[in-house]
Amino acid sequence: MVKARVTETVGALGDYLKEQRTQSRLSLRQLADQAGVSNPYLSQIERGLRKPSAEVLQQIAKALRISAEQLYIRAGILSPDDGVGGSVELAVLGDPGLTERQKQSLLDVYASFLALNEVDAVAAAPADAEESVTDAETAQ
Fold it and tell me: What's the number of domains the chain is made of?
């Protein structure tokens, strides 16, 4: 299920990039040159076969003159629902002192913590509901 969601996200990103490139009246080769990536690699991104790194997305965004954050959201790196979380992710992505690999590792760890907390919250919810019922029965 997770792999399907990633594939879906990467495909949607590719469609969006192709649309933005077309609107900018750039050929695939022109955008690849401006973004500093190879033509075949950019083609694979547009076709949804590759998931680009945050750094590559930033280069593509700069070449297309669009928001890098919008590409991060479309790539699944950032969640549009994240209030505070988005700022953590943006801070990691924007830190020039980290390598691309370090950034991705930090984002992966951060995402795993959020997912673990979500699982814990769901698991705790039924127990909280049972305690409320027991407390209500005891009060009567």
Answer: 2
d(CA 97, CA 104): 13
56 & 104 share domain:
no
113 lies in which domain range?
Answer: 80-140
Q: CA 65 → CA 26, 61, 86, 126, distances in Å? A: 12, 6, 21, 48
- State how far the Cα of 137 lies from the Cα of 140, in Å rounded to an integer: 5
15 and 64 belong to one structural domain: yes
The DSSP output letter for 95 is -
User: Do 96 and 67 share a domain, yes or no?
Assistant: no
Backbone angles phi, psi at 110, to 5 degrees: -60, -45
C-alpha span between 136 and 116 (Å, rounded): 30
CA dist., res. 103 & res. 54, Å (int): 9
Least confident span in 5-9, 49-53, 78-82, 125-129: 5-9
Three-state secondary-structure class, residue 89 = helix
Same-domain pairing of 49 and 116? no
What's the number of CA atoms in the CB half-sphere (13 Å) around residue 89? Answer: 26
- 68 and 28 housed in the same domain: yes
Question: How does residue 5 score in pLDDT terms, banded at 50, 70 and 90?
Answer: very low
